[in-house]
Structure formats: structure tokens, C-alpha cells
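Hi Y.,

Following your request, here is the sequence exactly as I used it, all 486 residues.
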Amino acid sequence: MPCPRSRLVPLLLFLGANAGAAPCSFTPATLSGERAPGLIVGAEVLLPEGSRAGQGVHIRFNGGLGLVGEFDAVRAARPDAAVLDCRGAAVLSPGFVNAHEHPAYSYAFPDAHLNPGYVHRDEWRLGTDGAQPLPIPEPIVYARDNPRSAAILLAMELRHLLGGATTIAGPGGLPGVVRNIDRHDRPGDIELYDYEADVEVFPFSFQAVEDLREECAGGPAHQFGHRAADDLAFMAYVPHVGEGRKASCAARAEVARYLQRVQRRDRRYALVHGVATDRDDYAVMREFDVTLVWSPRSNLALYGETVDIAGALDSGVRIALSTDWSPSGSFHMREEAGCARRAASAAGVALPADALWRMSTVHGAYALGLEDRLGAIRPGLRADLVLVAHAGGDPHDAVLTATHRDVLAAWVDGRALLLSETLPESLGAGRCVALPGMAPRACGVLSAFGLSPATFIEHVANTVPVNDAGRQAPCDAPTGGRAPST
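Below is the corresponding structure, written out as C-alpha cells. Let me know if you'd prefer a different format.
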């Protein structure tokens, strides 16, 4: 916010008086006629080419990224900009890109009958082959005149934002908080989804096991119908494929069909879940530039196994992390990164922090065909950023393992939606309010949906908390057992 130079010294003295609690100093922008000078953030910055200490990142007034470089050089080039100087005390990262979620359902806790014994997703969805089905939560759809739906979806998005994600791909959500990605199919989608990707839950059939039963028994190959969205080659295709154990004939048949399709080379392709994939599949995926969108917690919680992570990495497959949904997946991306690290370790693979960070940022953006818009700190991309306190050690690990107390700020499209109480409220996207169990304040989001802290808390009382992952599904080593029958 513009401020006369006469106010700079008092403000800096005020922050200095609280130096024990404030890792950053803030200098307001100077008045400069009609210009909107933006904000320079000084910190250690995570770039695609590596970590760089002592950097400056210019957040433009239009929500884009401007200059990125050595702090003093950026400040000299933009002398009127506000400055948040956190050098030596914080790391600035692009926000995580969660390439696969189901936001409309991701408010619900795992069911008591969740178990890792299912062979294919049709078993827990439909009770196929006598398996015990799991209840599907009622979808929560945003409606302007429904404060309950707005509160529940806002809690879901704040949970993901607090966990580091500034972008979520999947149907649902609400406008104006995290960046939502899906197709524009219905009225209201343009307001809700910032960018498009062809996210598909049922690319072959709603009941693949049943449709493929004769084929899997040695009969003729089943012919699936034409997809209505086959003509959307201008956007990335991100379907669920091979969501079942490697022993599942139906899951393997899905993978085989899909990897034939990608050889058209007509668009960007990703493959969500892919539990049934193997090293031969990874060779094809590498050749045809197919990103594997990996949700290890949900895979392990439902199927007792996940992808052959060693095989995928050895084959050079690009991997993006994602949470799937709260009924079986991680409650946010930092929890997913921790689960990925444990799942890889169980397979004899050590996943370094910078690799997990890439899976959570640049690879997620690439999977969605949006690497020229988000997922990295680069001039011209959107200012979707997270700033976390850092007292030393691996800066990538600091971002991946930060607790809510470490979160200093989170910007989406240049708007600070989360802001530490140690930073001035003028940096926020609107009025900042404290919420129970959450160290940073939420700025400009409750009032946007007509919610007070009290009504927000009332509406979300029985949903997944904004900041408590205690009841999420387990991230356990492979089991190999079978699901109970009905």
C-alpha cells in the first residue's frame, strides 16, 4: 500500500521492536503518481535451476511476477515498490500444484471400513465381485446463496493453501481462493476455473471391471464408446487410468489402451494413479512424454500397493504428486510429500527433497499443460507463492515440512491470502482474521463469502479441519490382502 516516506522509519522501528517474533522487515511503497509499484520479496528463492540465496522477487500489481534476481538489483530497478525483506530468515517457493483432487468431496473423513484390500476401484465404488463398497460422500457444490457450502469449500481450500498448494486440479471448489483447474463445461465454470485441463474420472467406463469381464476371461476385446471430449486437443488430458492392483486384469487393460492412445502425440498427456503400471509402461510413458500423477497415500489405503516408484524413476518418467481426496488420500500436499518419501523408502528408494519439491511444483504444472503460467518463479508467470520461515538446512525440505507456524505468507495471483501475525495487515488481500488452530491469518476470504469467523466455524464443525491431519488415511507399506466381502 502506498505510504509517504515520513512513515517508513516509524514502521521499521515498530517491526524492529518485535524482532524476536518478526523474521522480516517491511517497507511500504512510496507514492509515485499513477503507477502501482507492487511488492518486492527478499528471501532464499527456489527456482527450477536450484536454490538461490539473497534474491528479490517482484510481485506486480496485476498478480504476475516481474523481475527475479539479486535483491539489491531488483530493488534498484523498482525503487518505489514495497519491500518485504526476509533474507536470511525465509524461503520463497512457488505454491504447490496439486494435479489431482476431487474438491467437491474433499471435506469428508475416511470411512471406518476403509481398508487396503481392494483390487480395482470398482470394488470399493460399486461392490463389484462381492467386495464391501465404501460410501461416497455427498458432493458440496458452491452456491452464492448457500453460506454452508461456501464455508465447507473454503475450509477445504484453506487446508490445501496452508499445506502449500496454490493450485488444485479437479471438479469443484469455489472462486477466488486457490487456483482451480478443470474444463469449462457449464455456466459458472469460467468464474470457478482459472485455467482449463481435461480432467477425466471415468475415461473408459463407469463400470470397467464388468465391461471387461469377458475380455479378461479370454473373450474378444471390449470396445469402449467414443469420448465426447476427444476433440479437446488444445488442453492437457488428465484421466484416471489403471486404478487397481497390478494383478487386476481390468486395470492392466485400461493402461494398455491408454498407452496406445498417447502415441497419437496430439496433446499433452498425464496418467492419474497408474497403480497397475510396470516398467514396460514407463518406457512408453517416457517416450511419449506422459506424466505420472502419483497419489501414494490413497493408493496404499485402498489397494495396499502403489506404483513401482523405482521403475518409474529409473525409466525417467516425470512424476507429479497429488492428494486424490480426503476420504482416502492426504489432507494436503505436505502430508502427501511425506507419504511419498515413506513409500519410496519402503521400495528402497531415497527421494531427496529437491525431487519431491519438483514433483509438487513444476511437474504438476507440466502435467496440466500450464507450465507457462504457474508452478515456478519466473518473470511473466502468475504470482502463486508461499513464504516459510527457514533457520537453516535444506531449503527445499523447509518448504516440504513446514508447519502452520512456519507459514509467513501465501499469495495466489499476487493476493496474500495467508499472512503471519508478525507481518502488517496492509500486505493482505483484505481484512485478516485469526482462525482456531491456524497460525497465519486468513485475509480477504471470509468476507468475500459473507462469513464471519463464528459462522465459518459453525458450518465446518463436522468436516476435515483446516489444520489437523490426525484422521487422514494411513500411509502404510504394501499389504497384499483382500478386501472383506459384503
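The first helix runs from residue 8 to 17.

Thanks again,
Q.
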